Amino acid sequence: MTGLELLKQQFNGHVAFRERRPGVVQVMAPLFHEDGDMVDIFLDEPRNGSTKLRVGDHGMTLMRLTYSYDLDTVNKQRIFSRILAENRILEADGRLYIETEPDGLYPAMLQFAQTVAKVSSTQYFKREVIQSLFYEQLAEFIEERLAEYNPRPGVLPIAGHDEYEVDHHFDFGPRPLYLFGVKDSDKARLATISCLEFLRHRLSFKSVMVHQDFESGIGKKDRTRITNAADKQFTSLDHFRETGPQFFERERVA
């Protein structure tokens, strides 16, 4: 059984193939964008002695995206690259693709179509960009308003343990401040675990959490855990912008 025959069986016959040119077949499968359009998927025959087929879009995904959304900033480009990397999709000259052996076509196509749907969804993309901007905006505020407190990004308080990283380290006053930006439950858990590990190593520090949205951004159990672990919390970036400088001033004279 060839790879295409197996693929047709796995789709229960709900798939068709159209040869676009020698060595390139378009797959017509029930895989759709959020607006109902079918995802553009092409199969390129193995090249240069390889046995792997290439599942790709021949540049159609980015063309479709640019009709309504431009990747015109460094942050947008970084989000785009992260989506591809997280889903193990490659990109070359604007073409997205993944390579697979013939018997792995079905899962590769599903993985590829899911990634294309994410990239093509402007709402998903905008949400990812906004969430990413939280950390950039936090860093910008620290650089602009708190520079006098000697901020250092990406500090590792425990030698040899880069999994316990402090977002922003401030070395002033009686003990250093370890500041974490927290935009979701995953980061809340990491910040909580890090603080507990610092305590276990008997480090002298004061932990500060700046949330993107304390009430809706993280789950109830994670809110409880991080509240028990943190010394000080700001419920939003706006809250930190408004009252953070006064808090730092009080810490300096404490």
Textual characterization of the structure:
With 254 residues, this protein is α+β, with helices and mostly antiparallel strands. The chain has two domains: 3-120, no CATH class; 132-253, Trna Endonuclease, Chain: A, domain 1. The chain is built from eight helices and eleven strands. The chain has helices at 3-10, 60-66, 74-86, 105-120, 122-145, 185-200, 220-229, 237-253, and strands spanning 16-21, 24-28, 41-44, 53-56, 90-92, 95-100, 151-155, 166-170, 177-182, 206-211, 232-234. The strands form two sheets. Strands 1-2-3-4-6-5 form a six-stranded antiparallel beta sheet, with helices on one face. It is elongated and about 75 Å long.
Helix content: 40-55%
Strand neighbour order, sheet with most strands: 1-2-3-4-6-5
- Strand residue percentage: 15-25%
Topology-level CATH name of the largest domain:
Trna Endonuclease, Chain: A, domain 1
Write down how many β-strands occur, each being a DSSP E stretch of 2 or more residues: 11
Largest sheet: 6 strands, antiparallel
pLDDT under 50 segments (min length 5)?
A: none
CATH architecture of the largest domain: 3-Layer(aba) Sandwich
Look at the structure and give the CATH class of the largest domain. Alpha Beta
Alpha plus pi helix count: 8
What separation lies between the terminal Cα atoms?
A: 76 Å
Radius of gyration: 24 Å
Helix/strand-derived class? alpha+beta
Nearest-integer average pLDDT? 90
Question: How many discrete domains?
Answer: 2
* General shape: elongated
Query: How do the helices and strands follow one another from N- to C-terminus?
Result: HEEEEHHEEHHEEEHEHEH
